[in-house]
Amino acid sequence: MRWIFRWVNWAMVLLFLLAVAVQWNDPDPVRWMAIYGAALCVCLLVAWRRRLPVAVPILVGLVALVWSLATIATGPAANWYSHMFDAWEMQSATVEQAREATGLLIVAVWMFVMAVHVRRGSGEV
C-alpha cells in the first residue's frame, strides 16, 4: 500500500510543479504560484521522508479550502463547469473561476491526505 501512496504523491509533485509553471502567464501569478508552491514543498518533504509538523499540510489545505470557497461564493455558480475544458485559453471570467476553485480544491484535498499520512507518523512514503 505504501508504494501506491508513494507513486500518487510523486504524481502530485509533478502536478503542482506544472501548476506553478503555468502561472507565469496569469494576470496575478504570485499568489497562485505561492499556494501551488506550498503544496509542492509539502509533497516534496514527505517524498524525501522529511519530518514535518502535521500543522503544515493542514494550514496549506485550510488556506486553499477557504480560498476556493470564497472564489465559489463570489462568482456566478451557474454553469461554471460546463465549459471549463472547452479550450486551454481563458474563455470567460466564470470559466477561470471554475478552474481556480477546482485547483484550490485539489490542493486542499491532497494536503488533508498528507496531514493524515504525517499524523500517522509513518514517515515512509
Q: Work out the radius of gyration.
A: 15 Å
* Number of DSSP helical runs: 4
Given the C-alpha coordinates, what overall shape results?
Answer: globular
Q: What's the number of extended β-strand segments?
A: 0
Helical content class = 55-70%
What is the typical, i.e. mean, pLDDT?
A: 83
Whole-number count of domains: 1
End-to-end C-alpha gap: 10 Å
Main beta-sheet strand count, sense and barrel state: none
Order of SSEs: HHHH
Percentage of β-strand residues: under 5%
User: Structural class of the helices, strands and pairings?
Assistant: mainly alpha
Poorly predicted ranges (pLDDT <50, ≥5 residues)? none
What does this structure look like?
This protein is an all-alpha fold. The chain has one domain (2-120). The chain has four helices and no strands. The radius of gyration is 15 Å and the shape is globular.
